Amino acid sequence: MKQQSFETERERAWVAFAEQLTQVRQGYRLGADQDSAQFVAEYRRLARDLSVARARGYSRRLVRYLNDLVVQGHNVVYAYRAGFLRSALVFLRAGFPQRVRRAWRYMLVAGIGFIVPLLGMVFTIFAAPEWVYSVMPAEQVSAMEAMYDPSAEHLGRERQSDTDFMMFGFYIMNNISITFQLFASGLVFGLGSVLYVVVNGLFIGAATGHLLSIGYHTTFLPFVVGHGSFELTALVIAGGAGLMLGHALLAPGPVGRLTALRNVAPQAVQIVMGAALMDLAAAFIEAFWSSSTAIGAGVKYSVGAVLWAMVLGYLIFAGRGVDARE
Fold it and tell me: Is it the case that residue 11 has pLDDT exceeding 50?
């Protein structure tokens, strides 16, 4: 294609992009909307046009003109992404805990649905140890005992490879998969989230009761006390977010079910994304701290107490009086 035909075909888009750049210089800011997405798409097309002009040996005037637009566009896109990062930090600092507190009724139901079966199973196994086999098969019980054997070199899951990084990746996938199961199953009118919360409570309660009853408290409790603050809290929060979806479908009010679901989904999704970040923190602690046998139980209990206080304090107090929409 000759340069004149190339300019004729694309000049209108270049002029429109230059006009947007002028608006930005006059104080207009890109936001997380369709305008910003369109601007980024036009910026990418402009960058391709510059590459084409250089490859085909078009005039220096055209190459310089396109290069100036690309440089200015790059600065705007960079500022937009920096703004996105700032929004993410505001969400973590205030938005996430605010949304969890607004949904406290759902969180309370999920918490009760998790804690009551957990404690019930613990006390049941204390009274009748064989009940552990009603929740998990014998092979799984034996594997669990091997994981927390006081003579084990590493605590926690059995390791095919003796690397913390590999286990970090495993813990991330495991934790986040549970979180999204709890959330997405809320679309079954909330019943799925309730079921998953109760089942997780029963399973964790069975594991806890069995390991404590056979005297493995010296390894099990120091292992879970640290990352449990993030992992178990995220589990309850994800279940609560799923209940938000279920309640919208069960009791949509004056609007239809689909409309009610659309209204509540953005808040529920933001909550579950925050829970996923908590899973990430839990996976890091579990892989690099909880599993270590070189750290004394007293230290782990102390750090665990601090982490539990931090997590609960964050969810209860963070973001009060802060406008998370900034």
Answer: yes
For residue 203, the number of C-alpha atoms closer than 13 Å in the C-beta half-sphere is 12
Give the tens place of pLDDT for each residue, 137-151.
999 999 999 889 887
Locate all alpha helices (DSSP H) within the chain, ordered by sequence.
Answer: 3-25, 34-55, 60-90, 96-102, 104-127, 138-147, 164-184, 191-213, 217-250, 257-285, 297-317
**Tokens of residue 10, six digits:** 């694309």
User: Using an 8 Å Cβ cutoff, are 229 and 284 in contact?
Assistant: no
Distance CA 200, CA 197 (A): 5
Count of all residues that appear for the chain in the document: 326
The Cα 1–Cα 251 span in angstroms is 61
* Alpha-carbon gap, residue 287 to 3, rounded angstroms: 59
Query: Closest by alpha carbon to 40, among 84, 87, 86?
Result: 84
Question: Does residue 146 contact residue 158 with C-beta atoms inside 8 Å?
Answer: yes
**Cα distance between residue 71 and residue 75, in whole Å:** 6
Q: Is 59 helix (H, G, I), strand (E, B) or coil?
A: coil
What's the confidence (pLDDT) of residue 291? 84
Q: Name the one residue in this structure whose structure tokens are 């964050």.
A: 314
Region 280-308: mean pLDDT is 93
Domain boundaries, the chain: 3-91, 103-317
pLDDT digit string, tens, across residues 263-288: 999 999 999 999 999 999 999 999 88
Torsion of CA 137, 142, 145, 146, to 10 degrees: -140
**Residue 42 in 3-state DSSP?**
helix
d(CA 205, CA 120): 7
Contact 255, 317 (CB under 8 A): no
The residues, ordered by sequence, that sit 6+ positions from 25 with a Cβ below 8 Å of its Cβ are none
- Rounded Cα distance between 127 and 121, Å, is 10
